[in-house]
């Protein structure tokens, strides 16, 4: 009997990542639609790869955070603009205003501590883009270990999705 599942020709990992990133887009879109007013005590921590394609941050911030940075959307942010690919927002860093542009594909974490909710992602790079011409590269052991969706052990609603991209 063969216990090795067949390779998938459907990119489930990419579909799930895209769907979860759509959650971030929908939430930010609702905030944008309400003139930037966050409902109740909601506020967001958004972590993203500063060197990902499409990310635009001031050079000083890129030097301070060459790999990844976390921003907080709570009290002082402005000009939130959300589209199907990402968002832009104005924030102040050491009392210096800055505009940031962040594609959803660059986001590695989204947390709303007011309701103990969070999502974690693998940042998408140009190399990770799905190529319909290439065959699936799943193999049994790696797929089983890497495709688990888990909740945080502390009981919070953090969902981590890691599909173990081969590097």
Structure description:
With 167 residues, the protein is an alpha+beta fold. It has a single domain, classed as SspB-like (SH3 type barrels). The chain has helices spanning 12-33, 59-64, 140-146, and strands at residues 44-49, 68-73, 77-82, 86-93, 96-103, 107-112, 117-120, 149-151, 157-161. It starts with 11 loop residues before the first helix and ends in a 6-residue tail after the last strand.
Task: Please tag this protein with its features.
single chain; 6-stranded mixed β-sheet; SH3 type barrels; 167 residues; globular; 3-stranded antiparallel β-sheet; alpha+beta; disordered C terminus
**What's the β-strand tally?**
9
Mean residue pLDDT = 79
CATH topology value: SH3 type barrels
Q: What percent of residues are in strands?
A: 25-35%
Return residue spans where pLDDT drops below 50 for at least 5 consecutive residues: 127-157, 163-167
CATH superfamily: SspB-like
**Can you list the strand order of the major beta sheet?**
2-1-6-7-9-8
The topology string of helices and strands comes to HEHEEEEEEHEE
Span of the ends, CA to CA: 31 Å
> Counting H and I runs of at least 4 residues, what is the number of helices?
3
């Amino acid at each position: 009997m063969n216990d090795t599942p067949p390779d998938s020709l459907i990119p489930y990992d990419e579909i799930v990542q895209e769907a979860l990133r759509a959650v971030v887009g929908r939430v930010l879109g609702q905030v944008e639609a309400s003139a930037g007013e966050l409902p109740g005590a909601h506020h967001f921590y958004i972590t993203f790869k500063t060197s990902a394609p499409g990310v635009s941050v001031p050079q000083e911030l890129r030097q301070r955070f060459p790999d990844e940075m976390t921003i907080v959307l709570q009290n002082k942010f402005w000009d939130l603009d959300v589209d199907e690919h990402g968002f832009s927002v104005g924030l102040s860093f050491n009392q210096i205003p800055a505009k940031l542009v962040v594609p959803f594909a660059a986001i590695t974490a989204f947390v709303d501590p007011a309701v103990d909710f969070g999502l974690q992602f693998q940042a998408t790079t140009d190399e990770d883009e799905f190529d319909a011409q290439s065959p699936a590269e799943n193999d049994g052991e790696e797929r089983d270990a890497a495709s688990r969706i888990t909740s945080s052990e502390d009981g919070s609603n953090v969902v981590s999705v890691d599909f173990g991209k081969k590097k």
